[in-house]
């Protein structure tokens, strides 16, 4: 609604909509989401039936085909971070990966989560800097500053592994080699953003904070889109490398 209402009057919005296609995937885990309404309110995984156990589900954000099962996940089906039986074993992971790779050149991707007020950049699987670390760090820091200007809420910009190790995560996959191979000579600038708050309410954020949280994210997302439009990241074999 914000984009539609401000097209033609807000220069940022107009530039973005005239030059970029925005792809929004509002829900990646429909079965898990449904179960959070009629089963466990804080359910995290999908609803995969795991053989040999009554414990259900795979953590989709440990199931992507990027350094899968190299730490920061679990081989125990009862764990909240169970990575599944193989990389991209889950239909949700397969569909999102294939859809991403079918779109052509993607200059940026954000995976929104809650909570902790963080702007996380690659990598989660190693503490070695990503090839584009200076640019990714600067953009993450700028998004944090832009979000802060809206309501004075601070989002910490850091590498994903600074929170804890993760492997097989969506943001590392978006930036990683499999996704880049089909991305027409570019590498997607990729982030995970953890929304409000830092622990007072956690996953059960009060309704009166939802719209302000969204307003912060609109500001950050607009900045992100313009930065990716102006300075897309070439892959090692792509233009300019």
Please give a structural write-up:
The protein starts with a helix and ends in a 7-residue tail after the last strand. Strand 2, helix 5 and strand 3 (156-159) form a beta-alpha-beta unit. It is α/β, with parallel strands linked by helices and 241 residues long. The mean pLDDT is 96. Helix 2 (11-19) packs across helix 8 and helix 5 packs antiparallel against helix 8. It is built from 8 helices and 6 strands; from the N terminus they run H-H-H-H-E-E-H-E-H-H-E-E-H-E. It has a 4-stranded mixed beta sheet with strand order 1-5-2-3.
Outline of the structure:
This protein is of the alpha/beta class. The chain has 8 helices and 6 strands; from the N terminus they run ααααββαβααββαβ. The strands form 2 sheets. It has a 4-stranded mixed β-sheet. It has a two-stranded antiparallel sheet with strand order 4-6.
Side-by-side strand order of the widest sheet: 1-5-2-3
Radius of gyration: 18 Å
For the sheet with most strands, the description reads: 4 strands, mixed
Strand count:
6
β content, as a range? 5-15%
Question: What are the main properties of this structure?
Answer:
alpha/beta; two-stranded antiparallel sheet; 8 helices; 11% strand
Please write out the topology.
Elements: H1 2-6, H2 11-19, H3 30-38, H4 91-102, E1 108-114, E2 118-121, H5 133-151, E3 156-159, H6 170-175, H7 177-181, E4 186-187, E5 189-195, H8 210-230, E6 233-234
Parallel strand pairs: 1-5, 2-3
Antiparallel strand pairs: 2-5, 4-6
Helix pairs in contact: 2-8, 5-8
């Amino acid at each position: 609604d914000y984009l539609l209402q401000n097209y033609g009057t807000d220069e940022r919005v107009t530039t973005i909509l005239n030059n970029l296609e925005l792809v929004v995937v509002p829900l990646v885990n429909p079965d898990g989401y449904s179960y959070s309404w009629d089963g466990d309110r804080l359910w995290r995984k999908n609803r995969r039936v795991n053989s040999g156990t009554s414990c259900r589900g795979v953590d989709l954000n440990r199931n992507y085909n990027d350094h899968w099962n190299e730490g920061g996940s679990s081989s125990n089906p009862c764990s909240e971070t169970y990575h599944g039986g193989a990389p991209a074993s889950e239909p949700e992971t397969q569909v999102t990966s294939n859809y991403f790779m079918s779109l052509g050149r993607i200059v940026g991707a954000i995976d929104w989560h809650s909570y902790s007020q963080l702007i996380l950049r690659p990598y989660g699987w190693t503490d070695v800097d990503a090839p584009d670390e200076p640019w990714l760090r600067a953009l993450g820091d700028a998004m944090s500053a832009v979000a802060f200007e809206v309501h004075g809420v601070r989002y910490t910009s850091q590498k994903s592994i600074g929170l804890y190790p993760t492997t097989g995560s969506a943001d590392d996959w978006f930036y990683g080699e499999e996704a880049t191979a089909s991305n027409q000579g570019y590498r997607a600038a990729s982030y995970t953003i953890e929304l409000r708050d830092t622990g007072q309410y956690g996953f059960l954020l009060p309704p009166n904070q939802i719209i302000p949280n969204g307003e912060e994210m609109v500001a950050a997302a607009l900045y992100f889109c313009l930065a990716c439009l102006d300075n897309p990241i070439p892959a090692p074999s792509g233009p300019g490398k």
